[in-house]
Amino acid sequence: MLRRILTAILITAILLPFLFFGVLSVGQAWFYPSILPQRFTLSNWQELLVGQSELQLSLLLSLLLGMGVAILATLAGFVISKEIARAKYKNRWLLLAYWPFVLSPVVLAILVQRFFLLTGMSGEVIGVLLGQFILAFPFAVIFFQSFWTYEILQMEQQSQTLGASAVYTLQQVLLPLAKPLLLICFFQTFLISWFEYGLTQFIGLGKIKTLTILVFKYVNEANIFHAALASLLLMLPPALLLWLNKKFVFRGI
Amino acid sequence: MLTIQNLHKAYQTHTVLDQVSLELPQGQVLAVLGRSGCGKTTLLKALAGLLTLDAGSINWAGESMDAVPSREREMVYLFQEPLLFPHLSVFENLAYGLRVRKEAEAQVQQKVVQMLQELELQEHAQKKPSHLSGGQRQRVAFGRAIIFLPRVLLLDEPFASLDAQSRASMQRLFLRLARKYNITALFVTHEVKEALLVGDRFAYMAAGKLQVYTSKDAFIADPQTGVRDELAFWSALEQQTTYQP
């Protein structure tokens, strides 16, 4: 019984924000002390689906940045993590990977700002992508350390002496073994990019309007209906990824 | 014939292999006895091409192996742990070396089925390694290594993690298949009995130096190998048991 109550509370806690923002996103004219908006309309959603609205562009931009950062960070993290696992001074390299998190992303952004200004990447999508990569890549490196154990490295050597090339070993041994971790890392780094605010704002100079940036903008403008729709969109991919994680990645674990 | 000349390997000031030389005719098993840390693993890994040497040469049938990468040497290194690929079935683990060599599917099927029979693992063909016992896993690892008939098999205390019964069974299996497939092997062990059982030729390794003996008697007679001490121990124990009232 207690378990059922706890499950119900958990499900309500997860679904309530979706319901709340869902109602707000179709609302119009909401005045105190009314509990619900005066009118309901799909115009905000039409704006998203039809034509080139700010919201639609920022959704596409966020997806593009998230996918780009996740693919790059996961692949680079997988490769570099292996080199670190085999390196003589493994712990020193790992310490370096913790550096962005020790500094905090905003302080890091201030430190690297000059580089982005000099290279002309400030206020550009590529600059923001690189900035987010600076955060996601060390995360992936640290994440994959749990994969590159002594046993996996020995297994790689075993495959070599059995006659397999590096590519064959990667395809037939390493990638199948790392598949669940690769997927989790992809999801996690996507979320790092998706929710990133400070560094994106600083390097993007306010010109690169990701969904997270847009939510803050609408809130500042007291545009609660657009803010609700943007928040709903912001919450959807992580929820979808969590569902996919549970359904496919953790299946059988 | 495997010919090794003056192999040398050092880590900073610590010498691990010191002028190691040997000759091993095809189809023979060299049992290398030695304590932990004497350089046995380094010797095997160097032969497999997994380590770079400071000096020395490795030849097979007159052909230099020095510049040949490990995947082309056809010298399979067998670790102490079976290291089976956990995502592949027993069948696919055995077939790995054949698939790497792009053998025809019919050949792969026929060779793997035959090897499963040799290893007495027919009913386990579709199982994953995690569902096998330690001894069964070691059998699969051994079968996976010899199925494509490599030039040399390098065994690094392969049965050390097994219980006494499985170990004896594996030793018998190794001897039977080594004879049947005419396997050339370096068998490293720290157990005197195992060395005497599996070897056609014998060597002792200590502090990076390898002493190869001309005969089994010479190997037993050398006090540093510890064979005589062990034989004396068992002999004394037998006498004690016999004369007990």
TrEMBL record, chain A:
Q: Which GO terms describe its cellular component?
A: plasma membrane
What keywords tag this UniProt record? Cell inner membrane, Cell membrane, Membrane, Transmembrane, Transmembrane helix, Transport
Membrane topology annotation: Multi-pass membrane protein
List the transmembrane segments: 55-81, 93-113, 125-148, 181-204, 224-244
Which PROSITE patterns does this entry report, sorted A to Z?
ABC_TM1 (PS50928)
The main location is: membrane
Q: Where is the ABC transmembrane type-1 domain?
A: 59-245
Q: What biological process terms from GO does the record include? A: transmembrane transport
Q: Where in the cell is it found?
A: Cell inner membrane
PANTHER family, from UniProt? INNER MEMBRANE ABC TRANSPORTER PERMEASE PROTEIN YDCV
What is the designated name of this protein?
A: Putative spermidine/putrescine transport system permease protein
Species lineage: Bacteria, Pseudomonadati, Bacteroidota, Cytophagia, Cytophagales
Automatic annotation (TrEMBL), chain B:
What the entry lists under Gene3D superfamilies is as follows: P-loop containing nucleotide triphosphate hydrolases
User: CDD domains from the entry?
Assistant: ABC_Carb_Solutes_like
List the protein's name. Putrescine transport system ATP-binding protein
Listed A to Z, the keywords are:
ATP-binding, Cell membrane, Ion transport, Iron, Iron transport, Membrane, Nucleotide-binding, Transport
GO CC terms, sorted: membrane
Tell me, which GO biological process terms does this entry list? Answer: quaternary ammonium group transport
| Record has Cell membrane as a keyword | yes
PROSITE patterns attached to this UniProt entry:
ABC_TRANSPORTER_1, ABC_TRANSPORTER_2
The record ties this protein, via InterPro entries, to:
AAA+_ATPase, ABC_SmlMolc_Importer, ABC_transporter-like_ATP-bd, ABC_transporter-like_CS, ABC_transpr_FbpC, P-loop_NTPase
Q: Where is the ABC transporter domain?
A: 2-232
Query: What Pfam families does the record point to?
Result: ABC_tran (PF00005)
Q: Name one GO molecular function term.
A: ABC-type ferric iron transporter activity
